[in-house]
Amino acid sequence: MYAAITGWGKCLPPATLTNDDLATFLDTSDEWITSRTGMKERRISHVTVSELAHIACEHALAAAGKTAADVELIVFGSTTFDELCPNAASNVQRLLGADKAACMDVNTACTSGMYSLSTATAMIKSGVVKNALVIGAEVISPIMEWQNRDVAVLFGDGAAALFLEASEQAEGVLTEALGCFGESRDILAVQGWGMKYANKARTLGDAQWNFLGQEIFKKAVAGMAQGCEQVLEKLSLTSDDIDLVVPHQANLRIIDSLAKKLSIDKSKVFVNIEKYGNMSAATALVAFVESIEQGLVTENSKVLLPAFGGGLTWSAHVVSFLNKPVAKSQSDASLPESSKSGLALVQDIIQAKQ
């Protein structure tokens, strides 16, 4: 049994925060950020992560030709859930009206969307459910340390979702590799975010980020390369057999280094980091959805999806479609309007913290 990907959708908040916007309150510039990261802008959300996830799911269901009543499982990958209890997936269930769906949250930082894909695929393969919605979504802006240039320029908000259905044909996730460099977990950490800090002076949102960029860079390339090598070996493939690589978009230099390490031509590598920055759990799935929307995923093509995140978790998936993915329908679901710019939303966050 396999878990075919029959639906896909995304939700990007309309408010954009450009590099020039960041330069109005940070000692930085468009040239400084672009040359070091490849990022030009990112999105800032005016709604919660569950609301972003809900809209992404509506589009994924429409693409699959399904309704909320069909959904049997919702797996929500994120690190910025609205609440820890009850879980955020149950809120998406309520917003969708997917009353029959079981609900669970997954938190592995930036790989959360990909670990959720593995979780849902395993549930379908084992016969627990016949279909599932997989979500990768994040609203990081409220807990961002906006005065810290090392991290404030990197992250943005967004969401994406996939709809999976049981299939007897070899499609969907053909194989995957998951792992973690637990001994290095402290080099990417957010202090003040979690029960460890309960009843302490620091309030939620007043977070301090540990971010050792050079060490993260090395581990990111090593973890994703290790995962890619494992999945290729499992399928007896080489990098030449891969039609498209859609990596986690954390830094353009990391993406380039990974492609070089795997001897993959850069023309095969999908990049959208300039538009969204790093959306953590949403990043890889948004990039995957956009590669489908742009017609880059074709019949029988094999897509390699490497990712890494805090923990330091890493993953790699090989995904295939038997036929060129074509949406069966479209949804007009959208977010409520907001009159504020990305810079104005960030200024509101900064002021609230002060």
TrEMBL record:
This is 3-oxoacyl-[acyl-carrier-protein] synthase 3. Signal peptide: none annotated. The keyword Cytoplasm applies. It comes from Thalassotalea marina. InterPro entries: ACP_syn_III_C, ACP_syn_III_N, FabH, Thiolase-like. Residues 232-320 form the Beta-ketoacyl-[acyl-carrier-protein] synthase III C-terminal domain. GO terms for biological process: fatty acid biosynthetic process; secondary metabolite biosynthetic process. GO terms for molecular function: 3-oxoacyl-[acyl-carrier-protein] synthase activity. NCBIfam families: fabH, PRK09352.1. It comes from the Bacteria. The keyword Membrane does not apply. Belongs to the thiolase-like superfamily. FabH family. Gene3D superfamilies: 3.40.47.10. Pfam families: ACP_syn_III, ACP_syn_III_C. Pathway: Lipid metabolism. Keywords: Acyltransferase, Cytoplasm, Fatty acid biosynthesis, Fatty acid metabolism, Lipid biosynthesis, Lipid metabolism, Multifunctional enzyme, Transferase. Residues 104-179 form the Beta-ketoacyl-[acyl-carrier-protein] synthase III N-terminal domain.
